[in-house]
């Protein structure tokens, strides 16, 4: 248990200092969610997204989860932009190739 406490403290220091990588944040979040608190039981009719499963977690853990959610949101926006730009480039070069073949 002391090793886990030391690891949790190290994660908090990394996060608070801004030196944490996405991989270390994910590892810390997984470790904390598995070791410290089990996810709440979801009734059959409930949607997991409607439940705030972080409400019983410590404030540093909530900050880490919020940071991970923001990172995921940023990644999703970049992925959407990439797909759009790739489709535009593909259409552009297919059009140019079509002109050269004529």
Question: How does this structure look, described?
Answer:
- The protein is elongated, with a radius of gyration of 21 Å.
- The chain is mainly α.
- The chain is 72% helix and 0% strand.
- It has three helices and no strands.
What structural class do the secondary elements suggest? mainly alpha
First-to-last CA distance: 72 Å
Largest sheet: none
Rg calculated over all Cα atoms: 21 Å
Number of helices: 3
- Topology pattern, helix = H, strand = E: HHH
Low-confidence stretches: none
Quick structural gist:
The protein is mainly α.
Write the layout of secondary structure elements.
Layout (H helix, E strand, L loop, with lengths): L1 H16 L4 H14 L23 H43 L1
Helix pairs in contact: 1-2, 2-3
List keywords for this structure.
single chain, 102 residues, mainly alpha, 3 helices, 72% helix, 0% strand
């Amino acid at each position: 248990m002391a090793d886990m406490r030391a690891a949790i403290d190290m994660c908090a220091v990394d996060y608070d200092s801004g030196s944490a990588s996405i991989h270390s944040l994910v590892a810390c979040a997984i470790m904390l969610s598995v070791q410290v608190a089990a996810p709440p039981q979801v009734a059959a009719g409930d949607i997991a997204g409607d439940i705030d499963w972080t409400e019983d977690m410590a404030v540093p853990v909530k900050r880490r989860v919020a940071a991970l959610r923001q990172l995921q949101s940023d990644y999703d926006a970049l992925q959407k932009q990439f797909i759009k730009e790739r489709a535009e480039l593909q259409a552009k070069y297919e059009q140019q190739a079509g002109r050269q073949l004529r």
